[in-house]
Amino acid sequence: MTMRLQPRAGFAIPAAILVSLILMLALFSAFELVSTERKVADNARSATDAEAIAESGLETFLLTRAALGFVGVPAASESTRVTLPHGYADVVLTRVRAGVGSSPPIYLVRSRGVHTVKRVANSLDASRSVAEYAVWRNATLGTAASWTSLSGLQKNGGSGILSGVDACGGPTVAGVAVPNVPGYTQSGGASVPQGSPPILNLGTQTQAEQATNVDWNSINSGSGFAPDVAIPGASWPSFSDPAVYPVIKVTGDFTLLSNGHGLLIVTGKLTLNGAVTWDGIILVGDHLVSNGNNQVTGAVVTGLNDKLGLGASVDSIGVNSLGNGNKLFQYNSCSVSKALGAFGRLVPYSNAWVDDWAF
User: Fold this and answer.
1) Residues facing residue 138 across a β-bridge
2) Do residue 270 and residue 350 come from a single domain?
3) Can you tell me the distance from the alpha carbon of 143 to that of 174, in angstroms, rounded to the nearest whole number?
4) pLDDT tens profile 253-306
5) What is the dihedral of CA 141, 275, 246, 170, to 10 degrees?
6) Buried/exposed code over 144-163 (b: 16+ C-beta within 10 A; e: otherwise)
7) Prediction pTM value
8) 214 with 131, same domain?
9) Which domain holds residue 281?
10) Which helix or strand (DSSP H or E) is residue 162 part of?
C-alpha cells in the first residue's frame, strides 16, 4: 500500500516576518531608549545652564544696575531682561521693606534664567529661578563738615551763616573743616561758623588731604564715573524734575549763574554770583568765590587739586573767599544723599541667596 504525503502550508515566511518584526521593535526600542537618555541628559545640562544664566543675570543687575537704566534709590518695583550667551534672564526687583529712619530699604531680587540652546530636537527651553535679598547702601561723601577746604577759607563781614547743623535732622557736623595753614580767617563782624565743632582743624596739609576721603584723582580724570552732563560740550540742565539730581562735571573755571541741584564738579575755580542757590554737593578743584546772597544746602569741598599735587602752595590754588552778603552754607544730609544717589548700590545680604525660587 502506497502512502501519499499531503501538502502542508509553509511557515518559514511568516516566521521570518515575525522575527523581523521582533528585531525591528527591539531596534526601535533601542533607538527610543537612546533618544530618551539623550533628552534626559540634555535637560539636566540645560537645567544647570539655566541656573547659571539666572545667577549671571542677577549678579549683572546688582553690579551694573545703572548701566541698565536704573539710577538712584530703587523704586518699589523694577524689571528688566538681561541677554546672555545661550539664553536670557528676566530680573525683577521688589521692595519688601521701605527705609525706616536710618535703616535702609530692603529688596528681593529674583532672576529667571532661560537656556535657549537645544542639543536635541523638539526639546523645551529649560528655565530656573534664583533670588537674593539685598539692601540699598548710599554712597558717602567722606567729609565731616558743611564746607571742607584744603586751601583755607576767608570770610568777609558778619552777615551770612556757615552751619554744620543738619537741616535734615541728622547729627550736627563741623561748620568748617580746614588745615592749620591757612586755616579759617574772618575780616569784620562777629559771626562765626556753627557746628560741632564750629571749626574743625584737619592738621597739616597732608593730614587734611588724607582726612578728606574724596577720590579726586578718579573724579578729575573721569575714570571713576560718567557724568550726566559734561561741560564744555553739553548744555546746562533745566532741573525741571526736582526728584532728579544730575551729576554735572565742568572742566576748567565756571560761574554759577542759575539755581540748580545735584552733584556739581568743577575742576577749576567756581564763582557764585547773585542770589543763586544750590541743593546737593559742590566739589571744586581750585577755590570758590561767593559774591552776593548765595545759598548752598548740602556740602561743599574745595581745594581738591591739592590731592593731585597741584597745590603745593596756597597761591597755586587760592583761598576760598566769602564776600559780604547774607549768604547761607548749611549741611543737609538728605541733599547729600540725593546728590550721591547715582553712586549708591545694592548690597546682597550674606547667606540670603535662594535657589529654585517661585518666579
Assistant:
1) none
2) no
3) 10
4) 999 989 999 999 999 999 998 889 999 999 999 999 888 888 999 999 999 998
5) 40
6) bbbbbbbbbbbbbbebbbbb
7) 0.69
8) no
9) 145-341
10) strand 161-163
